[in-house]
Specification:
This protein is mainly α. It has one domain. Helix content is 57%, strand content 0%. The protein contains 5 helices and no strands. α2 packs parallel to α5. This is Addiction module antidote protein. It holds the Pfam family dnstrm_HI1420. InterPro entries: HI1420 (IPR014057), Lambda_DNA-bd_dom_sf (IPR010982).
């Protein structure tokens, strides 16, 4: 009997605002643009890509493409998606002067 495997999607684990916030913070800490784009895509899938598309005014297909492992979203797209998530970029306050 052959075993069936389902594809893992981290979006399935992002079930609370706290989990999403921690996930995005960790992605941002890497400084890796492709990882960050992919993480934004996972959160968009968790929140519903159609809903995020509607809130941003961007096409779902554009979001799927931009927010993938190989995507390269513009700053405008990134900021629109973060705003749709209810997030915004802030400077880090614990940086020594």
């Amino acid at each position: 009997m052959a075993e069936k495997f389902t594809e893992f999607d981290v979006a399935d684990l992002l079930t609370s605002e706290e989990a999403i916030e921690a996930f995005l913070a960790e992605a941002m800490e890497t400084g890796d643009a492709k990882h960050i784009a992919s993480a934004l895509g996972a959160v968009a899938r968790a929140k519903g890509m159609t809903n995020i598309a509607r809130k941003t005014g961007l096409a779902r297909e554009h979001l799927y493409r931009s927010l993938s492992e190989n995507g390269n979203p513009t700053l405008e797209t990134t900021l629109a998606v973060l705003k749709a998530f209810g997030f915004h970029l802030m400077p880090k306050h614990d940086v020594a002067a």
